[in-house]
Automatic annotation (TrEMBL):
Belongs to the 5'(3')-deoxyribonucleotidase family. InterPro entries: HAD-like_sf, HAD-SF_hydro_IG_5-nucl, HAD_sf. PANTHER family: 5'-NUCLEOTIDASE DOMAIN-CONTAINING (PTHR12103), HAD-SUPERFAMILY HYDROLASE, SUBFAMILY IG, 5'-NUCLEOTIDASE (PTHR12103:SF22). GO terms for molecular function: 5'-nucleotidase activity; metal ion binding. Keywords: Hydrolase, Magnesium, Metal-binding. It comes from Gossypium mustelinum (Cotton). Coiled coil: none annotated. This is 5'-nucleotidase. CDD domains: HAD_cN-II.
Amino acid sequence: MATANLQFLQNPFPRPTFSSKYLVMRAPKMVFKCGCSSSSSVGGDAFSLTSSSKCDVDYLGESTKGDLNINLKHLENFGLDGQATLEGPIEQVARLEAEEAGSLLRDLGIPSPSAARLSPRGMFCTRTLNLRSISAIGYDMDYTLIHYNVMAWEGRAYDYCMENLKSMGFPVEGLAFDPDLVIRGLVIDKEKGNLVKADRFGYVKRALHGTKMLSTRAVSEMYGRELVDLRKESQWEFLNTLFSVSEAVAYMQMVDRLDDGVIPADLGPLDYKGLYKAVGKALFRAHVEGQLKSEIMSKPELFVEPDPELPLALLDQKEAGKKLLLITNSDYHYTDKMMQHSFNRFLPNDMGWRDLFDMVIVSARKPEFFQMSHPLYEVVTGEGLMRPCFKTHTGGLYSGGSAQMVENSLNIHGDEILYVGDHIYTDVSQSKVHLRWRTALICRELEEEYKALIHSRGPRATVVELINQKEVVGDLFNQLRLALQRRTKGRPAQTLAATNMDDRELTESMQKLLIVMQRLDEKIAPLLEADGELFNKREPTG
């Protein structure tokens, strides 16, 4: 799991962040605590777990339910005393024991956990996630458990969209899918035909009109007093998911065609908002008619990038006592085909993907799944035959229903459930807002950016040092400037010595400092530009 670079709209410095109204994902170290749920899985009689009847609250305000404890009687049987064995200053003991455990891992050929801190396939958080308090982990499927080749999947969606636009009379000749044009987290301005990057406060920082980058001046003149308000759905369209990429690319390219005046007049007087509706309609047809999913199901190897480690990671979670849920908007046939292709071959002992999950819900209709109740059906045959259902059972396969039904069935509620998905609004926002579930966002786009961040640590340190030098020089310059300003206005400066200082000496010092700052700027600017190009080659025009 990873947290999205913003491609051409990325603020190149300081460290990139991905922000939304409900989520700000950066890259600090993940705070993890033991998530084991059964002592038998971690050493038999050697350990015990804190039960719900004996739990307390720790220094973080978290319940100690599920804490792993040493069984002292087990130590005594081996003639060991836990305290005596680990005597000495705890800082020194911790260092020595960590070195010994690290040596053991190396001997076993197991990668050190510290290596994961520099891995782009890491886990990043904005608050402590205590896995011992998590009883169930729910997963979305598309772009979460199943990762598609974006060029292949979204490229085919784009192709179908363009075919439908052509049948509607739009000029699409010469256009090709460009996945580098768009990324999640950006916002379409349907009134102006722009694609914008807004900061967490809603101010537009960069923008494209069609496929052309707007200059900083043009962005300021166009959006200087206007904030992006996602509640105004008639104007703004937030790109929540990778499924938005094909639609956004097609729209931005068609904006160019509209500006060029090559869209036939018989399609009616089109503005940018009307053009967006036309593109959306063309892509919707491809999904509704089932063309795209039928093609993917027939040749999943062309569209899916299986991860051999993923099914085993879920198996580890299940064996640690976590209840696993699959909650997807995809239908049963598509879900079964994709999961079989991506999971079954990597599971041991003839296990199938269904064996991993305590409950599977297809056609969930998120986000409504988290907001209200829908009829629940049980899928009872391999052909997808369903019957009405009012009570769920472990290992069941269902269609529809609601999150409330899941909670009641498992007798697990609120922040005892962690839900993992790729859709910023449907998966992450709504499950948290309505149910207080803990959430994790899959954001694979950041993998390449994180690699760039690691590789550019040296140059970035140089930039930070230069900026710090400029700040020191700037503070000195400002104090001298203030003294000169007060003297010029016939008022005393900050001190008597500054008031009586020779004008020439004061001015000369200021001139030297100003030259230093200008030279520092000349050195900082190209370094910042090079740093920004690590994440995106597109830059604003002049």
